[in-house]
């Protein structure tokens, strides 16, 4: 496979140092590690590991609030919805 495309990324120094140490322990270069990761993304059409997210208190409260507290509206038909969106 011809490698003729480049991509740069910025990350904090701690993440770089710690991740590069892992690559070194595995006997691969950081570039090889990124190629492995990106190949897995392309092959699986997803991130190849679970991504966990814990919302902060404000977001959690907003997600758990009932629909009335969120200000949701109900419409009888699409015309009424679109009318409301325009006004």
Protein model, in words:
By secondary structure, the chain is mostly helical. It has one domain (13-86). Helices cover 57% and strands 0% of the residues. It contains five helices and no strands.
Find the structural class using helix and strand composition: mainly alpha
| Terminus-to-terminus distance | 55 Å
Rg calculated over all Cα atoms: 23 Å
Q: What order do the helices and strands follow?
A: HHHHH
Strand content: under 5%
Our count of helices gives: 5
Instruction: Summarize model confidence as the mean pLDDT.
Output: 92
Largest sheet: none
Domain count: 1
Query: What share of residues is helical?
Result: 55-70%
Number of strands: 0
Q: Which shape, going by the Cα principal axes? A: elongated
Q: Low-confidence parts lasting 5 or more residues at pLDDT below 50?
A: none
């Amino acid at each position: 496979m011809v490698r003729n495309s480049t991509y740069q990324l910025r990350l904090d120094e701690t993440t770089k140092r710690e991740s590069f140490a892992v690559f070194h322990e595995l006997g691969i270069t950081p570039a090889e590690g990124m190629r492995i990761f990106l190949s897995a993304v392309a092959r699986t059409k997803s991130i190849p590991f679970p991504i966990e997210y814990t919302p902060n208190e404000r977001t959690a409260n907003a997600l758990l609030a009932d629909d009335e507290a969120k200000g949701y509206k109900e419409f009888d038909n699409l015309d009424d919805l679109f009318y409301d969106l325009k006004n």
